C-alpha cells in the first residue's frame, strides 16, 4: 500500500498548492475532495499493476472561523472600492476570486450579493453630482457622461471577473436576480440616465450633434456611437431617444422638402434626396441602432418624396424625357420605387407623356412627310428608357404599348397609309441607305409600329398599290427583302391578309415563263418587228384596280399587242386581256448634236417623244389629239419632259406648269453626262386623286365586310337584339368602326330584305331566309 499512500499524498499537495486563504491545508484538501468527488488512477510504486485511486469524503465538514466571512468581505470591499476609484488593488485577483468561491461554498452567497449591490449602488449614486453643474456646455456634458459610462462599464467588468463564481452559481440559480453586469446596468439606468435633468441634457446634446452633422459640420461620431450604444444597453434608446429623433427628422425634412421643391430644378432635387437617403443610411451603420433604420428611411422617403410625387412629375418629368436625361430618369425611377404609389404614379405620367408626344407627331398634317421616321425614333428612345432607366418593368412595357396604340389611332387611316409608303421608300430600288441586315432591322421596327394600328386594311391597300408599282416598273431593291416583309405581314395578320400580295409575286413569276415562250413564238413569225415587247399578265383580283386609259399607240406597238393576244389566248382560252397603258414603260434611243442617248420613260412619255420624229414643234392641243392621252395626265407627262432636270423638250412660254396654249419644241442641244437617262416617271409619283381613290376603295371594302358580317351573324342567330348584334360585330371586324356606320349598314340590309325588324320591338332583328 506504500504506492497508494504516496499517490494520495501527491494528490493532496497539488490541491493545496493551488489555494490561498485558509490556515489549515488539511481542511482545504478535505473540502476539495468532498466537492470534487475526484478519483484518480496510476501505476503502483515499484512498477506494479495499475490500481484505481478513490478519494472519499471527510466524515465531518470542516468549519470556517467565526470572522472569516466578515474579513473576506472587507478584502473584497476594499478591492471593489479600489476598482471604482481607479487605484491599485492590494490583493492578488486569483486570491480574491478564490475568496468569493470559498464564501459561496459556505452558503453566504445571498449576503455577498446584497453587499456587492449596495457598494455598487452607493458609488453610482455619488456620480450624479458631477452632472448637476449648469456651467457645462452640451459637448462637454456629453463627453463627461460618456466617460462616466465607459468607467462604469470597465469597473463592472473587473468586479464581475472577481465575483464570477457568485455570478455563475447563486445568481444563475435565482431567476429573479439580475446578473452582476445587468445589476450594474440597472443601477446606472435608475440613478443616472433616468434622472430627468441628465436624460434631457444627454438626448438634447445627441440631437444637437446630429443636427450639426446634417447641416454639413464635422462632429465626433465615435462619441455619438458610444452614447447611443449606452442608451441601447440601458434599454432606454427607443423611449428616450428614438421617438424624439424621428420627430426632429420629420420636422427637418418636412421643411426642407417644401423649401427645396420650390427652389431647385427636379434633377438637382432628386440628387439631394438621394444624398440625404445615403447620409441617413450611413448614420445607421455608423452610430444609430439598426432598428432605427426602417422608420428613419421611411420618414425621409415620405417627407422628401412621398409628399411631392405629383409636383416632381409635373415640374420635371417632361423635360427629363424630352432631353433624354438617362441618368436622372434612372434615379427618378429608383427613388419613386421606394415610395408607396410612387412607381404607379410615375408610370401614369410616363404614359400620358407618350400619348401627348405621340399625338403631336400623328395629328399634325405638316409633319406627315417625316411622321413614320419620327415614330420610329420615338419608339427607339422609349425602348431605351424602359431598358436602362425603368429596369424593363413589365407594367411599363404594357403601358407603353397601350399609349402608342391610343395616340397612333387618334388620326384614323393616315398613319397606316404613311407606314405603307415608308416601307415602299425602304424597299424601292435606289435606296442605298442600308445593307440587307440593316434593312431587315428597319422592317422589324416598322412592323412594331404597324402592330399598333387598328385600320390594317388601309395599310394593305396602300402597300399593295406600292408593291404593284415596284414589281411592274422593276423598282424593287431586293426580292429577298420583299419576301421577308411579306412573311412578317403574314405572321402578324394571317394568310388571308397576304394572299393577294403573294398572288402578285406568283403573277410576276408566271409572266417570266410566259415571256420565254412568247420570245420563241415571235421568232417563228414572218415579220417579228424590231421592238422587244415584255408583257406582265396580272390576275385582276390580286392587283389594285387600275382605270383603263385608251391612247393612240403607233402601228408597230398595236401589231405587237395583237401578236401577243393571239399567242396568249391560244394557250389560255376563255380569258380576257385588258391592256393597262398607264403602267407601260419603254427604252427609247435618241440622237442629239452631242451624240446618242437612251431614255427610260413611261409609255405616255414615249408616245409624246415619238411625235417629234415627225416634226420639231407641236402645241398642246396637237399632242393631245395625236396621242389620245387624257388632259391632266398629258400635262403631267409634258411637265416631266420640258420642266424637269432632263429637258428633252423646250416649252414656250417657259414655266413650271403646262397650259393649254403652250408650244413644245424638240431640244436638239440636249446635254447630259449619262448615256442612259431615266426621266422622272410620273406614274411612280402618287397623285392626290390616286390617294383619295385608294382610301375610298378601302371604305367601300369595309362596307362589304360589315354587310357580310351582319348577314353571317344573323344567319347563325336568326333573331338578335341591336346591342348584341353591334357587340358581335365589334368582335368580328378587324378595323375601327363607329356605331353610326353600323346602323346605316343594318338599315341598308333591312331595305334590301336580308333582315327585318320585329313588329313589336324595333330593336330586335330577324333574319330573312
Automatic annotation (TrEMBL):
A Pfam family this chain is assigned to: Cullin_Nedd8
Keyword Nucleotide-binding: no
Ubl conjugation recorded as keyword: yes
Location of the Cullin family profile domain: 414-642
InterPro entries in the cross-refs: Cullin, Cullin-like_AB, Cullin_CS, Cullin_homology, Cullin_homology_sf, Cullin_N, Cullin_neddylation_domain, Cullin_repeat-like_dom_sf
Annotated keywords: Isopeptide bond, Ubl conjugation
Pathway: Protein modification; protein ubiquitination
Family affiliation: Belongs to the cullin family.
Record-given protein name: Cullin-4A isoform X1
Organism of origin: Pogona vitticeps (central bearded dragon)
